Amino acid sequence: MGLRFCKSSEVTKILVLYRLLFIAVCQKIHSPHLNHHGERLAYSTIFINLQRPYRRLQNTYKGLHMQTENIQAIVLRRTNYGEADKIITSLTSKGDKINIIAKGVRKSKSKLVAGTELFCVSDICYVMGKGSMATLTSARIVSQHTQFLDNLDKVNLAYDIIKTVHKHTEDSASNRYFTLLQQVFMALETPNYDVDTIRIWAWLQLLQESGHQLQLEKQTNGDTFDSAALYAFDAENGGFMVSAGGNFRPDHIKLLRIAQSQPLTVLQRISNAPRYSFELTPVIKQFVETTY
Predict the structure, then answer these.
(1) Hey, where are the domains in the chain?
(2) How much is the pTM?
(3) CA 265 to CA 274: how far, in whole Å?
């Protein structure tokens, strides 16, 4: 990983030798120069003829020294551009969000398709341009998560999580978002994993990573939770308050506490997790949408 430079010592030597020859010839030309018709060439024509191959070598030298980066990335957004190109917004394993143009990727024989697929982790190589746009030079799929594409609920969840990550992350963010997307993709491919449970876990992980975690140790007014009471969600303060007409029990809050602090595998082992997650989804969804 990281910056990579091509070897160019031989090109450097050729450039130096050619430059010396170029200067010598241009400084003093003793004999007349003829073209293939036997006509004498003007010195300006000789100069141009010598200059062209030198510039080609010089451009090759610069091309070899272009900075490229190899890194794993996940596509967050893609947009068609021109006749055959795409502009890709990708999240790298370092936590950077970059805009990349994939030239000719919409052509049938393009080798860059791997770097533009959704729900994949790809090993990409790109060259940074003068502005903020990079150019994709090669791509290879590392892991492809497509086994859940026949389940509409799972596909919609995957899109929602990607959209939320794209909306929230700045140009440089924590690499935790990259890991979270990987975990969500793998969970969606696991047959016995409940969709609502994955959704609640992913949302709480995103909230925690962004510094908007829910208040779950105490009520939003500072009082402790009573195991016999009912609670309503306090969207303004991101927590729960006791309410006679509340829809949530302490077990709901305990589930959220586990989702916020434990891996998804722990949450999936709780027998009532699917039901509690389904009941919590409307209020947590509203809070996430308001927060982001």
Answers:
(1) 2-64, 68-144, 192-291
(2) 0.75
(3) 13
